[in-house]
Amino acid sequence: MSSVRRHSRLLAVGVSCVAVGAAVSAIATAGAATSPAHSSAHPAAKHHRLGARGVRRLLHAVQGSAVVRTAGGFATVTFQRGKVDSVSGQQLTITEGTPKASYKTVTVTVPANAMVRDNRRQASLSQVEPGQRVLVVAAPKRTYVIARTPKAG
């Protein structure tokens, strides 16, 4: 059984926690910024549910972190998503963003024991090429690098 499948639950929990955390933060921030000063009602009471459109936006997040509960306490899971600019040894330089918009450029140090997938196949970090779309998830015990070649469009 592949390591990605064995750890898929951890990946799903991490990404879900990031999405939920971002949603709660966005709702709280919007409520604090838009509620009138004279209102006696709690700011969050006036907000509607996030809805399907908001959830879809959160699934397209380009970077984030979440604190998740583990058997031994709590752990931080982080992720970066974007386009590969370069790979040099264990350094992966990514332009975070979507195919249509860039956020910022970051360099991620990928541990030697990272699970790397390239176009759904097991690979090494050196096989990841500039121009590919990539998702890097750093969990407490393992780092995952999931790369794919964008469809010609």
Summary, kept brief:
The chain is 26% helix and 38% strand. The protein has 153 residues and is an alpha+beta fold. It has 2 domains: 3-74, no CATH class; 78-148, OB fold (Dihydrolipoamide Acetyltransferase, E2P) (Beta Barrel).
List the keywords.
alpha+beta, globular, 38% strand, 2 domains, OB fold (Dihydrolipoamide Acetyltransferase, E2P), 153 residues, 8 strands, eight-stranded mixed β-sheet
How are the elements arranged and paired?
Layout: H1 3-6, H2 8-34, H3 51-59, E1 63-70, E2 73-88, E3 91-97, E4 102-109, E5 115-118, E6 121-123, E7 133-138, E8 143-148
Parallel strand pairs: 5-8
Antiparallel strand pairs: 1-2, 2-3, 2-7, 3-4, 5-6, 7-8
Helix pairs in contact: 2-3
Fold and architecture overview:
The protein is α+β, with helices and mostly antiparallel strands and 153 residues long. The chain has two domains: 3-74, no CATH class; 78-148, OB fold (Dihydrolipoamide Acetyltransferase, E2P), CATH 2.40.50. 26% of the residues lie in helices and 38% in strands. It contains three helices and eight strands, in the order H-H-H-E-E-E-E-E-E-E-E. It has helices spanning 3-6, 8-34, 51-59, and strands at 63-70, 73-88, 91-97, 102-109, 115-118, 121-123, 133-138, 143-148. Strands 1, 2, 3, 4, 5, 6, 7 and 8 form an eight-stranded mixed sheet that branches. A hairpin with a 2-residue loop joins strand 1 and strand 2 (73-88). Helix 2 (8-34) packs across helix 3. The protein is globular, with a radius of gyration of 18 Å. 14% of the residues are buried. Residues 23-48 have low confidence and may be disordered.
